[in-house]
UniProtKB/TrEMBL annotation:
One of its GO terms (molecular function) is arylesterase activity. It catalyses: an N-acyl-L-homoserine lactone + H2O = an N-acyl-L-homoserine + H(+); a phenyl acetate + H2O = a phenol + acetate + H(+). One of its GO terms (cellular component) is extracellular space. Homotrimer. GO terms for biological process: carboxylic acid catabolic process; establishment of localization in cell; lactone catabolic process; negative regulation of superoxide anion generation; regulation of cellular response to drug; renal sodium ion transport; response to toxic substance. Ca(2+) 1 binds at E53, I116, N167, D168, N223, D268, N269. Its EC number is 3.1.1.2. Binds 2 calcium ions per subunit. Keywords: Calcium, Disulfide bond, Glycoprotein, Hydrolase, Metal-binding, Signal. This is Paraoxonase. InterPro entries: 6-blade_b-propeller_TolB-like (IPR011042), Arylesterase (IPR002640), Serum_paraoxonase/arylesterase (IPR051288). It comes from Equus asinus (Donkey).
Length: 354
């Protein structure tokens, strides 16, 4: 009898594991191949070979790029290279990426930049907020941008018990921002369990020096976050659920869910086209290839544009798609007056004239 119970339990356990493995393959689009969509006039950006996970563009066309992310389970081509912030002027014909100097008081050796967001003060001073993972922890670093010197002056490190596994931020006021948490567990193997069991335990946080609170929850893995042009709505990508959530922002910074757009691809960072308000989404067409990196069969890239986001029927078009032969692991895309710049988690960056 005891043996029978044991065998039954073993069989049930194996069946569950098998079922979960199938579910992981489905969730990561493990059998998907991309159809190419490649604009004519594109070239790889020189000097950006260790990733360009997130990009944020100022109204003037200056683009900040976070580079050198080290993230558990993700390949890295420059394991000994500390993270850096690059600048590109998208007004130039062939914009170059220029590394920004960082003030000496900041610990550059452990700099591990992830999501970024710019903020311009009333006096036009530009601040760059950077999600940082020094020693795999999560902090938010505030830098002041010195345009003439092409440098960043470190002002402050923000830490908080709710700022865990932070992926991206969007700054909405001086020292006020929304941040996404991409995993509930911090242990790598438990994060795999979290993914396999399809737990929806991650959230969006509002941070200010006076108040820190969870303002939206129930995400499988909240990733990219940005704000609409009119500043009334917050857009959040849930990478494992392959969708974008539209949330209404209230005066007390609370968020209420408005709708969810399913995209069928693993959505990473989000940006806004300053001319149209469309969302540009950097996506992973096949995340299994990203997690299980093979240079012979690399992960591809995909950039989607969501038109008329707030209308009843938003439409979706593909701005760029490649099977990894040119660009691997796209995580973000920005547009600036007819230019498209695509960044990746660990690979190169691509600049296109549309
Ligand atoms: Ca961002
Ligand atoms: Ca991200």
């Amino acid at each position: 009898m005891g043996k029978l119970v044991l065998l039954t339990l073993l069989g049930a356990g194996l069946a569950l594991i098998g079922e979960r493995l199938v579910a992981i393959r489905r969730r990561t689009n493990a059998s998907r191949e991309v159809e190419p969509v490649e604009p004519q006039n594109c070239h790889l950006v020189e000097g950006l070979g260790y990733g360009s996970e997130d990009i944020d563009v100022l109204p003037s066309g200056l683009a900040f790029i976070s580079s050198g992310l080290k993230y558990p389970g993700m390949v890295n081509f420059g394991p000994d290279e500390p993270g850096q912030i690059f600048l590109m002027d998208l007004n130039e014909q062939n914009p170059r990426a220029q590394v920004l100097n960082i003030s000496d008081s900041f610990d550059k050796a452990s700099f591990n930049p992830h999501g970024i967001s710019t903020f311009m003060d009333k006096d036009h001073t530009v601040y760059l907020y950077v999600v940082n993972h020094p020693n795999m922890k999560s902090t938010v670093e505030i830098f002041k941008f010195e345009e003439r010197q092409r440098s960043l002056v470190h002002l402050k490190t923000i830490q908080h018990k709710l700022l865990i596994s932070v992926n991206d931020i969007v700054v909405v006021g001086p020292e006020q921002f929304y941040a996404t948490r991409d995993h509930y567990f911090t242990n790598f193997f438990l994060t795999l369990f979290e993914m396999a069991m399809e737990l929806h335990w991650t959230y969006v946080l509002f941070y200010s020096p006076r108040e820190v609170k969870v303002v939206a929850k129930g995400f499988s893995s909240a990733n990219g976050i940005t704000i609409s042009l009119d500043k009334k709505y917050i857009y959040v990508a849930d990478i494992l659920d392959k969708n974008i959530h539209v949330l209404k922002k209230h005066d007390n910074w609370d968020l209420t869910p408005l709708k969810v757009m399913q995209l069928g691809t693993l959505v990473d960072n989000l940006t806004i086209d300053p001319d149209t308000g469309d969302i540009l989404a950097g996506c992973h067409p096949n995340a299994m290839k990203l997690l299980n990196y093979n240079p012979e069969d690399p992960p591809g890239s995909e950039v989607l544009r969501i038109h008329n986001v707030l209308s009843e029927q938003p439409s979706i078009s593909t701005e760029y798609a490649n099977n990894g032969s040119v660009l691997q692991g796209s995580s973000v895309a920005v547009v600036y007056h007819g230019k498209l710049l695509i960044g990746t988690v660990f690979h190169k960056a691509l600049h296109c004239v549309l």
